[in-house]
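HOLO CASE FILE
Compound: adenosine-5'-triphosphate
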Amino acid sequence: MILQKFLLRLMTMAVTLFGVAVVVFVVIRVAPGDPIAMMLPPGAGPEDIERLRALYGLDKSLPQQFVIWLGGVLQGDFGTSISLRQDVLSLVLGRLPATLELATLALLMALAIGGPLAILGARERGTAVEAGIDVAGGAALSIPDFLWGLLLILVFGVLAPIFEISGRVSPSLDLPFATQFYLVESILRLRFDLTADLLAHMFIPALALALPLAAIITLLLKQSLKEVMDLDYVVLARVKGFSETQVILREALKNAALPTLTLIGVQFTFLIGGTVIVERLFSYEGLGNMAIDAVINRDLPLIQGIVLVFALIFVLINLAVDLSYALLNPRLRHG
Amino acid sequence: MTAQPLCLSIGALSATLPNGDRVLRSVSLDVAAGEVHALVGESGAGKSMIGKALLGVLPPGVRQVEGSITLEGTRLETLAPAARRRLIGARTALIPQDPLTALNPSRRIGPQMTDRLTHILGWPAASARARIREMLAEVHIREPDRVIAAYPHELSGGMRQRVLIAAAFAAEPRLIVADEPTTALDVTVQKQILRLIADLQRRHGTAILFVTHDLGVVAKISQSVSVLYAGMVVERAPAPELFATPRHAYTKALMAATPRYTHPASSLQPVNSAVLAELALEVRAADTEWKRAHG
Ligand SMILES: Nc1ncnc2c1ncn2[C@@H]1O[C@H](COP(=O)(O)OP(=O)(O)OP(=O)(O)O)[C@@H](O)[C@H]1O
Ligand SMILES: [Mg+2]
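Model generated. Tokens follow.
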């Protein structure tokens, strides 16, 4: 049973990714703009264009191109970037860790802000504290991440420059890293000086990404908590002598977390989407920043590679949400 | 009369709804140590509300506006909220109406039974576990290990109510509020559960405030009774006396409507209109007096 479900799940994921591959492949070829024309010097003749088109396989029909590309992808060959003239896969893998670290930090920040506020709001339900949380949450939610980015640049970059607002790490530093997961590696290597520098760079962009999600978590989790707070087993816990905060943490939180968890999954994919512009805003060398360059340069193979990686991440996030949902809900686990 | 030590004494307790109406109208009742005191009345009479006021879990917006609740000599109103909560946790317990909703679906049974002992009363985990096994044996659960490790949805309604009863008695509370503990169960299980509560009550000498709308149950289990109508105690008496010589017309009507005191609540409907008119007058008089005293 379990194995069957798992296989079905894998197949669904494969079909999703295939669909994404088809759509991206077609759309970026239908969209205006010729990558070859953009990379040629002004005086190039038609035969130069033809030669380059053949080199990148762009002289074949669309279906042919797709089959060739997909065949390569299945063997781990995502083609060569037209603008950077490097292997797409190694380009993408080189940038992916920076984006994953930023998005994960943003998610943790959103949880660290939203969770306690939701619990506080549920505990103080019906009071001015809850009203204040509602207002703040509504405001945070109505401002998109890139606008938060601009606002935060204004505050922290111009008015009170405590954090860095450009790049991923101070260029003057010597980096001993073997992988691109700088933050993780700096911690593992106990190089907390580097961790601090990295965090100083990541803090503001991560906060910009985190704030709207933090607001959603606050409002939704608070609502779910409030719905649970008058259920019989919560009342019974109060009679046992547990305080309101204990009651929330011990009895209410786990059950109230289920709807929030599903939403966090969906919102986290938006958050990763948000990295594209936010990374650009803060010159953070991640995948999103690279994606914008790739689009500007009509770098078809690179765009395809990046989009496919994003799609893979989204699919994996959904899988993770479903798994944790099953973990939190014993009835699903045995079902 | 010899002065029996009182476990619970409620004096002139009034509580209001958010709209200002009273749900409890100067309720007074005493529960002696180790006795079962039945609270009987129709649906909406305020039986559960009395239990909730005592346990400090009134629904949002419902407020105790007057009166005293004294638990083993301690006036609960005089305590700070945290102290009151701890006292309630240590000396009382609740057997809820619906065993389906009174257990947390995402926690195993064991921890839900031991958490009061370990977290509120400070027992070592091992003693709490041993105690829980003892209690599960007392409620005739034969496979304690399976039950302790189970999630609520893996147990039947009757089993869950046994678990809740075992948990309620585990810390040797002085007073248990049992709020219609059998209403949500299968008819076949109801009798067993009722007998179980009565057995445990006798063995442990626990006082019980037993909420029910079933006079048959009252006759079987309780030593004293308060009859409630519209948040008002219309008659209070030792059980044998109440059944032998009911004084209030409403009590008589309830008994007349409950042949041999064995029928469930639905049969409590046909209270005749003369009685209802009299009750309405009493409620009005009580409210007028209350309003005069409170502006
Ligand atoms: N949360 C609440 N807010 C407002 N009014 C309430 C609330 N809970 C109960 N009431 C009202 O208070 C009155 C007393 O309710 P209570 O639950 O004590 O009745 P009961 O005697 O236990 O009845 P039942 O046999 O149906 O359980 C009812 O009229 C009910 O409508
Ligand atoms: Mg009730």
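CASE NOTES: Residues 266 and 318 of chain A are 8 Å apart (CA to CA). Chain A touches chain B at residues 125-126, 230-233, 235-243, 246, 250-251, 254-255, 328-331, 334 (CB under 8 Å).
CLOSED: yes
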